[in-house]
Amino acid sequence: MATDRYGNTLHACTAEGAGHLDRAVEALLFFRPEVAPAVEDALAASPGSPDAQAFAAYLGVLGTEHTGAAAARPRFEAYLAGLDADALPARERLHLAAAGACLAGDLHGAGDLLEELSLAYPRDVLALFAGHQLDFLTGDAVRLRDRIGGALSAWGRADEHRGPLLGMYAFGLEESGHHRRAEETGLAAVERHPGDVWAVHAVTHTYEMQGRIADGVAFLDARADDWARGNYLTVHNWWHYALYALEAGAEDTALRVYDAAVHRAESAGLAMELLDAAALLWRMRLAGREEPERWARLADAWAERADPPFYAFNDAHAVMAYVGRAGSRRRRRWWPTAAGGWPRARATRPGGPSPTTR
Question: pLDDT tens-digit profile of 231-263?
Answer without folding.
Answer: 999 999 999 999 999 999 999 999 999 999 999
